[in-house]
Amino acid sequence: MKDTGKRHVAILGSTGSIGTQALEVIRANRDRFEVEVLTAGSNDELLMAQALEFQPNAVVILDESKYQNLKDRLFPEGIKVYCGAAALSEVVEMEAIDVVLTALVGFAGLQPTLRAIAAGKHIALANKETLVVAGELVTAAAREKGVNIYPVDSEHSAIFQCLMGEFHNPIEKIYLTASGGPFREKSIEELKAVTKAQALKHPNWVMGAKITIDSASLMNKGLEVIEAKWLFALRPEQIDVIVHPQSIIHSIVQFCDGSMKAQMGLPDMKLPIQFALGYPDRTSTDFPRFDFMNYPTLTFEKPRRDVFLNLDLAFRAMERGGNMPCVLNAANEVAVALFLQDEISFMEMPELVGNCMEKIAFLPKPTLADYLECDRETRALATELKRAVKL
Ligand code: NDP
Ligand code: MG
Which ligand lies nearest to the CA atom of residue 47 in the structure? Predict the structure, then answer.
């Protein structure tokens, strides 16, 4: 990225948990960052307020029924307003943008991310689903274009920070830490009865609904394992997960001499967000500091892959490769949506994902068109399975 002057930022998903925290970072560092683009799914009121405050060049709203309202209010301010999925992909090509923060949720992040890379924009990547689905295509495109992908996910930011000054040294292994979520100590029997409200209460992080459910089911850690494989060019056997309920150590790298580096701090997503946007510089903050005496004990446990079946499914999808992570992701997006609508139970989520992984045809080397089709086909199958079997 340019070393001098302001970074010009596009935030895809500015109304979400990561998006609003990114705007907090920018609000506190107006001399370093300029907002060029803001986008939302359907929350036009918040998008409008953000646009009036940050005066971007353009905004995009996915929901076309919200377009007119936004346009009436923002056009007189000189802010361009667009709507729909195609506009979301096109807007990232805007000349003035240096870095695109992908803070939208799910498979919807894939095409805008690929378009941004093709247009030579650096990526601050929160949308892990993009790398899970098509990590090979995305990282190859970034290499070809000389574009950097800066991780926003706290674990991957931790690994990235541990690697600074070490990029030439081979990684032996990484340990991704996991809080274990709200159900860390529950049995399978107990998990069958957990409610949506319980699953939406994460012990250490406040996040969007989808990732909060993924964190409770450990699918989030499974997606992060696959994300790490692509970000750091690792083999599956080099990635381990360790449960660390205090969420103070954000992840660990082990080098070929056996030395280990960990990155620590209080859990606050603004830290990895601002590191990704401001790399390689750190930005001063007045956030609370970690105090060892408040946490005299940091503990570690082995994840229970026989209970949290999603983590096991994600490892299997990664090891199989090809379109399997795409199937895992699509089935999981459907499963989480059904769980949030009280249509299926907590333990029926991995069942649905596992069924889809068994039934969808394996493609060893999918193209982008194959991924789009695989995503569509898996969603249709997951919906069908739910309807036919009532699981
Ligand atoms: P939220 O649900 O809070 O926000 C999602 C954002 O994307 C909103 O702006 C939403 O708009 C928009 N959006 C939703 N669906 C679409 C769509 N189909 N097309 C375009 N825009 C859409 O999610 P989070 O901020 O929690 O998560 C965003 C990403 O970051 C996810 O991939 C997640 O895994 C990752 N992440 C999040 C962390 C966190 O702490 N929250 C931590 C690490 C990673 P609207 O508001 O209008 O619905
Ligand atoms: Mg994470």
Answer: 1
Q: Determine the distance from the C-alpha atom of residue 371 to the mean position of all C-alpha atoms in its chain, rounded to a whole number.
A: 18
Work out the percent of the chain whose per-residue pLDDT is above 90.
Answer: 95
Angle of helix 219-231 versus helix 154-163 axis, rounded to 10? 30
Does the CB atom of residue 40 touch ligand 1 within 6 A?
yes
Residue 283 has pLDDT above 70, yes or no: yes
269 lines ligand 1 (CB under 6 A): yes
Per-residue model confidence as pLDDT tens digits over 347-360: 999 999 999 999 99
Give me the helices (H) in the chain, please.
17-28, 44-54, 67-74, 85-91, 110-118, 128-145, 154-163, 188-192, 196-199, 209-217, 219-231, 270-278, 309-320, 324-340, 348-359, 368-389
CA distance 126 to 13: 10
Nearest to 77 by CA among 99, 97, 52, 101: 52
Confidence check: pLDDT of 14 > 70: yes
Judge if the beta carbon of residue 262 lies within 6 A of ligand 1: no
Which residue's entry shows tokens 């994300």?
Answer: 227
Q: 34: CA distance to ligand 2 center in Å? A: 26
* Ligand 1 pocket mutation pick from 104, 213, 247 by most atoms within 8 angstroms of CB: 104
Please tell me the distance between residue 260's alpha carbon and the centre of ligand 2 in angstroms: 20
Tell me, what's the pLDDT at 1? Answer: 56
- Ligand nearest to C-alpha 200: 1
180 lines ligand 1 (CB under 6 A): no
Q: Tell me the Cα Rg of the chain.
A: 20
